[in-house]
Amino acid sequence: MALDDLKAALPDYAKDLKLNLGSVIGNSDLPAQQLWGTVLSCAMATRSPGLLRELEPEAKANLSPEAYTAAKGAAAIMGMNNVYYRTLHLLSDKEYSTMRAGLRMNIIGTPGVEKVDFELWCFAVSAINGCGQCLDSHEAVLRKAGVEREVIQASLKIAAVLQAVAGVLDSEAALAAGNA
């Protein structure tokens, strides 16, 4: 199982991450599509080749082809949107926020899966990318659709753990390459 391999690859100092991987993925209460779509979109958002290599096959096995593509689409579109909207929020000149973005975002309207699932994946990716405006927007859509806070929190915990695991794996790989 890829999850066990991933946990085994973590050094002893990251024991908490090993335990958290087991709880947020291995013991998740999320339905399979929500879980594995969140895992895949977040793994892509971390930009960690090692993390993605370990988790993508299991995500692909647990998602329909449409959900697999939509989860990757969530990571892709939020990679763009999070930079754009985070920057608008950070700029002192608020005039930019009144300007039309003019960026294509068709996948958000027609993701090919249940809108709630796609919004959940976009929310989790926005957490990794640190865009408060996108987090607020996707959280509001999810809450309006009746999604419980616990479900939203579960996606946030997946994002947090995967981002931390990616950082450790990539740092250890860099250290090992430097010592070779």
UniProtKB/TrEMBL annotation:
The keyword Ion transport does not apply. Keywords: Antioxidant, Disulfide bond, Oxidoreductase, Peroxidase, Redox-active center. Residues 97-175 form the Carboxymuconolactone decarboxylase-like domain. GO terms for molecular function: disulfide oxidoreductase activity; hydroperoxide reductase activity; peroxiredoxin activity. It catalyses: N(6)-[(R)-dihydrolipoyl]-L-lysyl-[lipoyl-carrier protein] + a hydroperoxide = N(6)-[(R)-lipoyl]-L-lysyl-[lipoyl-carrier protein] + an alcohol + H2O. GO terms for biological process: cell redox homeostasis; response to oxidative stress. Disulfide bonds join C131-C134. InterPro entries: AhpD, AhpD-like, AhpD_core, CMD-like. It comes from the Bacteria. It holds the Pfam family CMD. The active site is at C131, C134. Its EC number is 1.11.1.28. Homotrimer. Antioxidant protein with alkyl hydroperoxidase activity. Required for the reduction of the AhpC active site cysteine residues and for the regeneration of the AhpC enzyme activity. Belongs to the AhpD family. This is Alkyl hydroperoxide reductase AhpD.
